[in-house]
Amino acid sequence: MNELEDSSRVPAVARRLTRRTALAGATGLAAALAACNRSGASADAKANYKFTFVNHVTTNSFFTATQYGASDACDLLGCSYRWTGSQNSNVSEMVRAVQTAINDKVDGIAVCLVDATAFNAPVAQAVAAGIPVVAYNADAGPASKNARMAYIGQELFASGQLMGKRIAGAVPAGGHVALFIATPGSLNLQPRIDGAIDSLKKSGKGITYDQVASGALVPQEHSAVESYYLGHRNVAGMFAVDGGTTEGVGLTSKKYGLAAKKVATGGYDLLPGSLQAIQSGDLGFAIDQQPYLQGYYPVVQLYLYKKSGTLMSPVETDTGLKFVTRETVEPYLTAGSRFEGKS
Q1: pTM for the whole thing?
Q2: Cα(175)–Cα(47) distance, rounded to whole angstroms?
Q3: Exposed/middle/buried for 220, CB within 10 Å: 0-12, 13-18, 19+?
């Protein structure tokens, strides 16, 4: 497990950059907080709540924007958060991190529910102890009977279906494609690839596919993509359902000139290498799920639940889906903010 990181470690200049925009859109939040204060739900103007985020890949650069979102919300509301979990999707480490948060009597927990049942007991224990829990980025789903109060993140299966339809439109009938997934079975990724396969089967174009595990760490992911291509040079397309592997698809495409060879490419999330590959034409698209909001909204919802005396319950929140292409990538490259994890 990596060292715990508190919100003070996010550079102050970056907090100021994102906070200006967060404040501009916070009219409804301000009204809700004012109502809480008028109702006397808390005697303190600033409650100084302490929240814990439990993540499955704590050092992955995709979640830089998520940490900035949490930091900005904490700055706005006068609370703090810690970032912990596992560097390589080790569920046991994540469960221990949830347990540690319960033992520390934190005021709220946000956790990536990447396993269908492993988190059921600690989440139930937290809720029974009066600690609100929300899922972010990955959700166990209703069949798991997990007691989390809300899910904040992308509609994963539906996003995979849209990706699959785009693949079907880019790949000729009877073509063969690679579908990369960092950690098969992980509930932040598996629904996406399932959705993509669902659309490919429904397309009627006879497109075949390999599901390829690429690993939880970015260097592994990049290597897996290149190795696959070198062994399958006749592939019609390569696509990934996670950020690190998508970046690897872009790098491999550039190295071997895949765009000129009419090999279709695409994936998820907006790591710097992926954005550059989209701009250069070496990556066809990437899907933006707005990771900043997956840090910002959990803090806001946990805060309001506590501040209102449990009157304002966390709610299901879809952080959205946008296809970023060569025609639309420019703002992501020039914005100079932390909303997409740019350093």
Answers
A1: 0.83
A2: 58
A3: middle
pLDDT (0 to 100) of residue 2: 40
Amino acid identity for residue 222 in this structure: H
- With bands split at pLDDT 50, 70 and 90, how would you rate the model's confidence at 97? very high
Residue 86 CB contacts under 8 Å (≥ 6 apart), including other chains:
1, 2, 55, 56, 57, 58, 93, 94, 97
Interior CA angle at 185 toward 182 and 190, to 5°?
A: 75
Two structure tokens written together for 57: 């890949």
Token pair listed for 215: 């690993």
What is the dihedral sign for C-alpha 331, 15, 151, 121? positive
Q: Delineate the domains of the chain, giving CATH numbers in brackets.
A: 5-153+291-319 (3.40.50.2300), 156-288 (3.40.50.2300)
Give CA–CA dist 86/104, Å, rounded: 18
